[in-house]
Amino acid sequence: MTDPTNVHEPVPQSAKLTAREKKWIIYDVGNSAFVLLSTAVIPIYAKSLMPADGNIVSAWGYAQTIASLVIALLMPLLGSIADVQGMKIKFFLGFFGTGVVTCCAMALPLTWLPFLVVYILATIGLNGSLTFYDSMLIDATSNERMDKVSSHGYGWGYIGSTVPFIFCIALIFGGPSLFDWSTVACTRASFIITAIWWVAFTIPLLTSYRQVHYRATRDQLGSAVRGTFSELAGTFGKIVKNKPLWMFMIAFFFYIDAVNTVISMSTSYGAELGIDSTPLVVALLYGESLKPFLLPMALLVLLGALMSFRRPRSTALFARDGLAVVALAWIAMSAFGALPFYLSGEIPSYVDCFFETVSGFTTTGASILQEVESLSKSLLFWRSFTHWVGGMGVLVFVMAILPMTDGHGMHLLRAEEPGPT
User: Fold this and answer.
1) What is the predicted pLDDT for the residue at 282?
2) Radius of gyration of the chain (CA)
3) What ranges in 179-227 are assigned the alpha helix state H?
4) Which pLDDT tens digit goes with each residue over 7-62?
5) Residue 154: its pLDDT value, please?
6) Coil, strand or helix: which one is 34?
7) Which candidate in 194, 222, 239, 389 could, as Cys together with 393 as Cys, close a disulfide (CB 3.0–4.6 Å)?
8) 58 in Cβ contact with 191 (< 8 Å)
9) How many CB atoms are closer than 10 A to CB 300?
10) Closest CA to 384 of 344, 392, 281
């Protein structure tokens, strides 16, 4: 069924994001802050609460498993109820509220077992809200724009989550000297900061969401719930008969379970091995200067903003255009990519910096450095990243922009290929 009072006006695929789509997207910016904190900070804090003979790896593994099982068992039933008119936002609000409240509760002076219980509730709240959040996409945009809007949510979630994370890390390591707080107090404060960030980026969605699509009205709630398990059985029967589908689902289950295991367990495993907690938390931020990266980023954002004011009359690309774009792109990428090396002062000559960057983007492998490991951790990562971009990254980039060029983008690909074109 469809609520005719809330139906959107059709939006072209190429149009900019609508206000309703943007408000759906930014919830990912809010909840991702908790995801990042629970990956890098919370396991170490939990380890500090455990007795000397405690095993954080097994305890953390049990906590993750319990939270996942609860969600897996609840979602089929709650999902059917949420399909009833007006119920989706209520369930979303319930799980979201549970996640935020328990995230704040983790800042209380708890022993390790109550802390893990509260963390399990917070994880259930997060994952439950994400289930209903994903189901809201059909009400926030059209079928043709779902991939675009979902990709924006995914990308901005990653980007946005780093903002409170950096602030929390700065507080944990700088708070004791700046505010005369203990490291434990700063860590607990980071839980409150994350909860506030989560709430702030959820308010726009809560104030704007309207359930457009539903399969039952409020007076049909009982029949919707009763039909849940028969529908699940029917769906399972159809999956069993579709061999490519169930093989894909099994393969994806093992793949994504492995990914989630690495993400959720890596920090606790490192802490159990006795690896110092500082490099675990600042694996992405080694405490090194951000200036070599922030200045080029600011410069590129400024140049990109200025160039966006002038739109081309036509997006069609031909062979001559492809050769020019590829040649200039390599030069520009190398010129700007050399700036982190140069601004850090670790490679004093800009010519050497340019050579090192060209070597990376072209995956040549040549280097002016006698000892590559002498670079700082951040620059060593940047050097490795240029090699990755020069290999698989370029292919991914080309495949991403080809659909935007109405088929003419093949000239870019041909200009990039080695040998005769």
Assistant:
1) 36
2) 25
3) 183-200, 203-208, 221-226
4) 455 566 567 888 899 999 999 999 989 988 888 788 888 888 888 777 777 888 88
5) 83
6) helix
7) 389
8) no
9) 13
10) 392
Assigned token pair, 48 = 């500090």
Please tell me the predicted confidence (pLDDT) of residue 118.
96
First and final CA of the chain: distance in angstroms? 54
**Cα 92 from Cα 209, distance rounded (Å):** 11
161 and 33 in contact (C-beta within 8 Å)?
yes
Strands (E), 65-163: none
Q: Closest Cα partner for 57 from 257, 256, 254, 264?
A: 264
Asked whether the beta carbons of 112 and 245 are under 8 A apart, the reply is no
Compute the distance between CA of residue 37 and CA of residue 190 in angstroms, rounded to an integer: 9
How far is it, in rounded angstroms, from Cα 256 to Cα 264? Answer: 12
Q: Report, as ranges of residue numbers, the positions in the chain whose pLDDT lies below 50.
A: 4, 7, 273, 275-285, 395, 399, 401-405, 407-421
Query: What are the angstrom distances between the C-alpha of 348 and each of 274, 312, 366?
Result: 38, 39, 18
Neighbours of 19 (CB within 10 A): 9
- Closest by CA to 36, choosing from 251, 194, 211, is 194
Give the C-alpha separation, 217 to 221, whole Å: 7
SS3 content of the chain, % helix, strand, coil (to 5): 75, 0, 25
Half-sphere exposure of 286 (CA within 13 A, CB side): 9
| Tokens encoding 298 | 């600011």
Angle between helices 183-200 and 19-40 (to 10 degrees): 160
Query: In whole numbers, what is the pLDDT of the chain averaged over residues?
Result: 78
Give the contacts of 264 (CB within 8 A, at least 6 positions apart): 38, 39, 60, 64
pLDDT per residue as tens digits for the range 259-300:
666 666 655 655 554 544 443 443 344 556 667 877 887 887
Instruction: State whether the Cα torsion 163-164-166-171 is positive or negative.
Output: positive
Q: Helices 319-337 and 350-361, interaxial angle, to 10°? A: 130
- What pLDDT does 329 receive? 77
What is the reported pLDDT for 53? 78
CA distances for 390 relative to 78, 115, 365, 397, angstroms: 46, 45, 11, 10
Residue 420: the pLDDT is: 45
352 burial level (CB within 10 Å; 0-12, 13-18, 19+): middle
The number of helix segments (H) and strand segments (E) in the chain equals: 20, 0
For residues 98 and 67, the answer to whether their CB atoms sit within 8 Å is: no
